[in-house]
Amino acid sequence: MQMNTPPRSTIRLTRRGRLALIATGAVVAGTAVAVPLLIPDSHEEKRPTSLVIPEGWRANQIYSAVDKALALPAGTTRKTVPTANLRLPVDAEGNPEGYLFPATYPLDRKPTPQGLLTRMVDAANAKFNGAPIAAGAQRNAMNVYQAVTIASIVQAEAATKADMGKVARVVFNRLERGMPLQMDSTVNYALNRFSVNTTERDTRIESPYNSYQRMGLPPTPIDSPGGDAMRAAINPVPGDWLYFVTVKPGDTRFTSDYAEHQRNVAEFNRHRQSAQVSTSPSKSR
Questions:
Q1: Measured between alpha carbons, how far is residue 154 from residues 12, 92, 151 in Å?
Q2: How many CB atoms lie within 10 A of CB 133?
C-alpha cells in the first residue's frame, strides 16, 4: 500500500541535538636538532611533521588545514585544485569533495598542496574502489560515487557509530519512496555552516544541495566520510524508518510514523530550550 506523506513544507527530518565537532587539524611537532655554536629561537614555531584530516571534514576545512600546515597564504591550496590532475571519478566533475580521505599524512621535507591532495585522493580511490565498497554499491543499485555521497550524509547526520546503519536506511527508504531526503546537513553545506538550528527560511534556499526542495541525492558528497560511514552506506540495517532526531545526547529516535516523529522533535526542542536557559549568563550589577 502506498504511504501518504505529510506536506513537504511541514516535514522536519533531522533537528539533531548536537553540534558538529569541528576539529582543528592537529599536527605533531618535529624534533629540534641542536646545532653547535647556535642558540635556537625558543619562540620560533616548529615545523609540523604530519597532518591529521578527521572524518567528516569538508574540502574547505581541509584546504585551510593544508595552508596552515605548510605556512602558505590562505586560499593557496584551493587554487591548486584545478591544475592538480587529481584522479577523481567522472561524476565529480573536478570537485574533490568526499575524496580527500580522512587519515594522518606524514609531511616530507618539501610538501606541496598538490602532493598532499594527490595522496588524499589516491587513498580514497584505494578504499572506495576496492571489492567490498564497489560490490556493495552495485548490490544496492548505485555507483561508487553515489555510495560516497550517501556515506557523507551518514557521516554528518549520525550522532554515533551505532546510528550510522539506521541513518543510511532512512536515506534508502526515502529514495525508494520518492521522498525528498530533507537532511539539515545538506542545507548547512549549502549555507557553508554547521548548525542544529535550521529554519523554515533555510529550507527554501535555492541550491542543488537543498534536499528539502530537491529530490534525490545532492550533486556531490558533503564531507569526507570515514570507513564506518562507508560500510553503513553499502550495508544499511533493515528497518522501515523514515524520520529520526537526536532528542538529547545518546538518545536518537527513529520512526516510520510522522506523528511520533513530531512528538520526538517537540521533545528535542524542549531539551534544547532548557539547555539554552541553563547556560545563559546570569545578569548582575
A1: 17, 19, 5
A2: 20
Q: Give the separation between CA 150 and CA 140, rounded to whole angstroms.
A: 12
Pairing relation of β-strands 50-52 and 104-106?
antiparallel
Q: Copy the grid coordinates of residue 190.
A: 549549502
Question: How far is the C-alpha of 103 from the C-alpha of 123, rounded, in Å?
Answer: 9
CB 92 within 8 A of CB 99: yes
Count CA atoms closer than 13 A to 75's CA, side-chain side: 0
Give the end-to-end CA distance of the chain in Å, rounded to a whole number. 64
pLDDT band at 46 (very low <50, low <70, confident <90, very high): confident
DSSP 248: E
pTM of the model: 0.82
Report CA-CA distances (Å) from 136 to 50, 218, 233.
Answer: 32, 20, 9
Contacts of residue 82, Cβ cutoff 8 Å, sequence gap at least 6: 94
Report in angstroms the alpha-carbon separations of 155 from 5, 148, 197, 233, 239: 26, 10, 18, 10, 19
Whole-number pLDDT of residue 278: 59
Closest CA to 241 of 194, 186, 177, 156: 177
Predicted pLDDT at 279:
53
What are the cell numbers at 139?
A: 548490490
Burial grade of 141 (CB within 10 A; 0-12, 13-18, 19 or more): exposed
Q: Which three cell numbers stand for residue 117?
A: 591532495
pLDDT value of residue 218: 98
Structure confidence at residue 13 (pLDDT): 47
